[in-house]
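[step 3/7] inverse_fold.run input=structure_tokens len=135
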């Protein structure tokens, strides 16, 4: 539930795309005097999902966020669609902004954009900021 403070939801993965989204989300929270809700989700249909953080990665994330001075809530979830999981959290906390990292795509991949990013961009009830790593 939104208590009046700006709420920034960040779709986070333990890679360069998640990091750029996280840093921008923290920056937006500072600019808006808000808080950050980090979502790390998986469909759980593979034995190893390198986008779903392990305990060590979550520990580093938590330490980094504690040093930021921003109020942060980290949520992990498993469900049929990662985009829907991010959207559900955004709705649950009455998000003002969702921040996601975008991957570069091949010509064929550009036609599909990426199902998670597309789902979030088209399904969010609030603004969505899509960022890419430099380079």
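[step 3/7] decode complete -> sequence:
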């Amino acid at each position: 539930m939104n208590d009046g403070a700006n709420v920034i939801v960040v779709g986070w993965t333990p890679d360069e795309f998640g990091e750029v989204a996280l840093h921008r989300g923290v920056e937006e929270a500072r600019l808006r005097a808000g808080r950050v809700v980090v979502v790390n989700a998986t469909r759980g249909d593979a034995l190893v999902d390198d986008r779903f953080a392990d305990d060590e990665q979550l520990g580093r994330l938590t330490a980094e966020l504690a040093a930021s001075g921003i109020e942060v809530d980290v949520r992990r979830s498993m469900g049929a669609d990662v985009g829907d999981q991010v959207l559900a959290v955004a709705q649950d906390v009455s998000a003002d902004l969702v921040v996601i990292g975008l991957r570069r795509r091949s010509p064929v991949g550009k036609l599909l954009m990426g199902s998670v990013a597309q789902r979030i961009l088209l399904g969010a009830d609030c603004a969505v900021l899509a960022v890419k790593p430099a380079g």
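[step 4/7] annotate
The chain has a mean pLDDT of 86.
The beta strands are 7-11, 35-42, 72-78, 97-101, 127-131.
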